[in-house]
Design brief:
This protein has 156 residues and is mainly β. Helix content is 14%, strand content 41%. It contains 2 helices and 12 strands; from the N terminus they run ββββββαββββββα. A 3-stranded antiparallel β-sheet has the order 1-2-3, with helices on one face. The model has no long low-confidence stretch (mean pLDDT 90). Pfam families: DUF1854.
Length: 156
């Protein structure tokens, strides 16, 4: 387990303030995921406004709960990548097509411009870009229900 010699708090404006073991404080710190899709809780860098790394966190679980919660809140406020848990229907099996899906952020509909907008990524995950540039993720195709997998198979 790594020992982290820093403190993290929010200032009156809600921005993260990093305080090093030396006592030096840096405002406006941002957490950045190294592997946002394949390992979202592993490899987090805390960087200053210029992108200079202040601390590396191997695993979020290593942090004390208050620090971990602050980092998770900051990440969730900046990241938007809904995770598809079910594909309800598609308007056609040729692109462009309108998709109706269930995500971890609620029901969504989007237009898929072409099959090239569905990309395979590490670990059997898929990244789907809609016509507005919003990225949806399917972390594990095998976890989808049979009907959703059948629809998806027609596009892969």
């Amino acid at each position: 387990m790594t020992i982290h010699n820093f403190q993290l708090m929010r200032n009156t404006f809600g921005r993260l303030v990093f305080t090093a073991a030396s006592g030096e404080a840096v405002e406006g710190v941002l957490p950045v995921r190294a592997f946002p899709i394949t390992a979202p809780d592993d490899g987090i860098s805390l960087v200053d406004a210029e992108g200079q790394e202040l601390a590396w966190i191997s695993h979020l679980s290593e942090l004390p709960e208050p620090t971990r919660v602050m980092i998770e809140e900051e990440l969730s406020s900046r990241e938007f990548m809904p995770e598809i848990s079910r594909i309800r229907e598609v308007s056609s099996f040729t692109a462009p097509s309108d998709w109706s899906v269930v995500t971890n952020r609620g029901d969504a509909t989007f237009t898929l411009k072409g099959e090239e907008d569905i990309r395979r990524i590490a670990g059997g995950a898929l990244l789907i870009a809609d016509n507005h540039g919003v990225h949806f993720v399917i972390r594990d195709v095998q976890q989808l229900d049979k009907a959703s997998r059948k629809i998806l198979d027609r596009f892969l």
